[in-house]
Amino acid sequence: MSDSTARPALLLAHGAGGSVAANYGPMMEQLRARYRVIGIDYPGAGSTPRATRRLELDELADRLTAAADAEGVERFAVSGFSLGGAVAIRLAARHPDRVTALALTAPFARADTGVRLTARVWRALIAAGDTDTLGRFLLARCLSPAALEAMDPQELETAVKETGAGVPVGTPEHVELVERLDVTADLARITAPTLVVSPVDDPLIPPRLHRAVATGIRGARLVEIAGGHLPFAEHPDRWAALLTDGLAPGSASGVSDRLADGGTDGEE
Which residues pair with 105 in a beta bridge? Predict the structure, then answer.
């Protein structure tokens, strides 16, 4: 048996308007050192063709499961970020015998009114083709105040242009799914050890929605970390440590009781 196949498998479910490379790339080296990593890009992200119809959550969960099947992997942990959290929840509810652990970062079971309004503005800006305004909107809605204040004007303007121009073509379909998905009923069906990672300054998916997911899954552990909606951009090493240690066999969190019981990690 090769070293890669001997390692436990980890499926990656990315967020709306992201991709496996965009959302997990900064931590990929750490993840691959511990896990056999398997991920798929949603339609219209990475090299996956754009959808010709609206997306369904079951379809995304099935695509991820099929990727594990194609690799000959029967049992696996799942990391879901943002929209990917709902994908991971649906997958785990449908295949409880296959999922060994869940790590859900900035998750939501159902978009509230504020998230739905944000999603509609997001789609409208894409349709308008104003990439600079789109970039400013996304930075304001995704980064923490501390991260924004740390940028000098030139850094901020560069980030605006790169963010607005780098939106995957399938983002409107991803965001439309955000508006209508509902995995609330799936939460009680989750049997896998679950870690919920909640960025405390998340302006896109409010931490109250992260907490609601943790409350709805029996035995889930909630860990609050510094930063906004994008831990891979603000605190990649800290997030990587949580994903690697928190999914270890026999541990739902892999962190101290202080963190697991809802304290912040104190990193700035």
Answer: 81, 197
**Total Cβ atoms within 10 A of residue 62:** 17
Q: 41 phi and psi, to 5 degrees?
A: -90, 140
Q: Which residue has 């928190």 as its token pair?
A: 246
For residue 217, CA distances in Å to 89, 99, 162, 194 come to 10, 14, 37, 8
The residue to which tokens 């992997």 are assigned = 73
Checking DSSP bridges between strand 9-13 and strand 76-81, what pairing results, if any? Answer: parallel
* Whole-model pTM over 0.85: yes
Report the distance separating Cα 225 and Cα 237, nearest Å. 12
Distances (CA, A) of 89 to 57, 73, 84, 156, 250: 10, 19, 8, 35, 20
Q: Is residue 136 helix, strand or coil? A: helix
Residue pair 205/131 in contact by the 8 Å Cβ criterion: no
Compute the distance between CA of residue 228 and CA of residue 115 in angstroms, rounded to an integer: 15
Backbone angles phi, psi at 221, to 5 degrees: -105, 135
Dist. CA 254–CA 267, nearest whole Å: 17
**pLDDT tens over the chain, length 268 residues:** 345 567 999 999 999 999 999 999 999 999 999 999 999 999 999 999 999 999 999 999 999 999 999 999 999 999 999 999 999 999 999 999 999 999 999 999 999 999 999 999 999 999 999 999 999 999 999 999 999 999 999 999 999 999 999 999 999 999 999 999 999 999 999 999 999 999 999 999 999 999 999 999 999 999 999 999 999 999 999 999 999 987 765 544 333 333 333 333 333 3
As given in the structure block, the two tokens for residue 157 are: 């303007």
Question: Collapsing DSSP states into helix, strand and coil, what is residue 163?
Answer: helix
